[in-house]
Amino acid sequence: MTRYCSILLIAAFGSAPAAHAQTFGAELKQTYTAVKNNLIKAAEKMPEDAYSFRATPDVRPFGQLIAHVADSQMRGCGSAKGEQKNPGAASKTTKADLVAALKESFEYCDSAYDSVTDETAKQMVKTFRGERTKLSALWGNVSHDNEMYGTIAVYMRLKGLVPPSSEGR
Q1: How many domains does the chain have?
Q2: H-run or E-run covering 130
Q3: What is the CATH number of the domain that holds 112?
Q4: How far apart are CA 80 and CA 144, in angstroms?
Q5: What pTM was estimated for this model as a whole?
Q6: The pLDDT of residue 159
Q7: 4 found inside a domain
Q8: Helix axis angle, 95-114 relative to 2-45, nearest 10°?
Q9: Rounded distance, CA 140 to CA 144, Å?
Q10: Nearest in space to 32 (alpha carbons), one of 154, 139, 111
Q11: If DSSP codes are grouped into helix, strand and coil, which group holds residue 125?
Q12: What is the Cα–Cα distance from 103 to 108, expressed in whole angstroms?
């Protein structure tokens, strides 16, 4: 019986990597698109005068959070695309410039996420954390974006605004 179960497990998991590679790319793109929409809507929704708002004196103002996301995306997606990008959102201060930089970073990243296939997901790329698969590098970007969105959502709530992911609830 144990031998039979082992054979079934090997058969099931032996074929799983090919099926999961396709699924992972689609799931990655879906998750990226969701956080992309939330971040852009949040940046657009926050009033201009709140871009200098700090939740506490020792944390970044809202505008710098938006700049950080844009710059991190350019570097992270650049790594996944085999390019080195020198972003400049951190030098921007107006809402219009920061929203534009954020949108530009997502436009740049779109092609990196669109390029994930069974084969490209396994390609090794150089990141600031060392060599990673392309899939891992892009999951890292999504994870960071979600972390930053969580912080941005708190800032929005402190300003009396409903974050985009909670609208309609």
Answers
A1: 1
A2: strand 130-133
A3: 1.20.120.450
A4: 15
A5: 0.84
A6: 98
A7: no
A8: 150
A9: 6
A10: 139
A11: strand
A12: 9
